[in-house]
């Protein structure tokens, strides 16, 4: 297959046109989001959904996340990523396979049907994780496009994927929230530097390859601005696979955490990596036959899960 988004191949960075739609469905009155929300996602590359979960559902999710963080020995060790120079948990991958509560959340119709609409296809989980940024010590994560990594290292062919971050703690302007450059998803920034062997072992703590150059970043930021979507627990932040984003460190005493799901179109299944010798491991990128998510309706409660 021709690589229409080549990266980590040239000696200088390049800004390439996006050749894929952002919203892959025509809006109709029965869509799971409003016309304005669909237009905003198309324009800005992200969307914030407020108050879609009840207080009881949020508490249920927080309890499930707390259980995972409290007993990492019960998890697959390769799925746990620690903070740089620390043993504090930064991320737990394969979230939906290690927590029934989180698997139910990923399939919830309030999320899955939005993903299906925006991607114009049945969807499956490319990746899932619990992100945790502890107070005082939570490290920054540098600017990047997820698609650049998923394309180069995982073999995702087209821009037909998105991420959903479900906030499990308050994310405010002070505790290292997600930052995005609105509209940056409209171009693909090809990066420099050949992908090292087993790059994921270091990149999940601090990414040094596949990161944008400062001149291109500055041009994007000055032209489009930087926004930090914030919200209370239960808020959902959806962003396009190619949106430039990152986060500052957290030197406040207030930790933040979120459940994070990457939905990919079934028709966009992974191929051989476009710029790495071998693909990343299973817990970072699902490579099997995609199984479309079945949307689940009803409340996220323990009683519903047990029924």
Automatic annotation (TrEMBL):
Keywords, ordered alphabetically: Dioxygenase, Iron, Metal-binding, Oxidoreductase
Annotated catalysed reactions: L-ectoine + 2-oxoglutarate + O2 = 5-hydroxyectoine + succinate + CO2
Pfam families per UniProt: PhyH (PF05721)
Superkingdom of this protein's organism: Bacteria
EC number in record: 1.14.11.55
Cofactor(s) recorded in Swiss-Prot or TrEMBL: Fe(2+)
GO molecular function, one term: iron ion binding
EC category name: oxidoreductase
Function: Involved in the biosynthesis of 5-hydroxyectoine, called compatible solute, which helps organisms to survive extreme osmotic stress by acting as a highly soluble organic osmolyte. Catalyzes the 2-oxoglutarate-dependent selective hydroxylation of L-ectoine to yield (4S,5S)-5-hydroxyectoine.
Subunit structure: Homodimer.
The family this protein is said to belong to: Belongs to the PhyH family. EctD subfamily.
Name of the protein in its database record: Ectoine hydroxylase
Species this chain originates from: Sphingopyxis indica
């Amino acid at each position: 297959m021709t690589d229409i988004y080549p990266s980590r191949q040239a000696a200088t960075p390049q800004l390439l046109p996006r050749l894929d739609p952002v919203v892959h469905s025509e809006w109709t009155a029965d869509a799971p989001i409003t016309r304005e929300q669909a237009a905003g996602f198309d324009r800005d590359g992200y969307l914030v959904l407020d108050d879609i979960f009840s207080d009881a559902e949020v508490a249920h999710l927080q309890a499930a996340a707390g259980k995972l963080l409290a007993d990492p020995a019960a998890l697959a060790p390769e799925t746990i990523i620690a903070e740089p120079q620390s043993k504090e948990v930064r991320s737990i991958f394969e979230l939906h396979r290690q927590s029934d509560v989180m698997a139910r959340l990923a399939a919830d119709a309030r999320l899955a049907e939005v993903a299906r609409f925006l991607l114009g296809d049945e969807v499956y989980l490319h990746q899932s994780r619990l992100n945790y940024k502890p107070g005082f010590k939570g490290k920054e994560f540098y600017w990047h496009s997820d698609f650049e990594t998923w394309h180069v290292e995982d073999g995702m062919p087209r821009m037909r994927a998105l991420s959903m971050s479900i906030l499990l703690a308050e994310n405010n302007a002070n505790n290292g929230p997600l930052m995005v450059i609105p509209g940056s998803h409209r171009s693909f920034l090809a990066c420099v530097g050949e992908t090292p062997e087993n790059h994921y072992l270091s990149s999940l703590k601090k990414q040094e390859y596949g990161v944008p150059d400062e001149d291109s970043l500055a041009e994007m930021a000055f032209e489009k601005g930087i926004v930090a979507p914030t919200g209370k627990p239960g808020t959902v932040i959806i962003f396009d696979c190619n949106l430039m984003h990152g986060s500052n460190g957290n030197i406040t005493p207030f930790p933040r955490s979120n459940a994070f799901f990457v939905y990919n179109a079934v028709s966009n299944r992974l191929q051989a990596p476009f710029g790495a010798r071998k693909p990343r491991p299973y817990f970072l990128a699902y490579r099997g036959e995609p199984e479309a998510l079945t949307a689940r309706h009803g409340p996220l409660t323990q009683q519903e899960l047990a029924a």
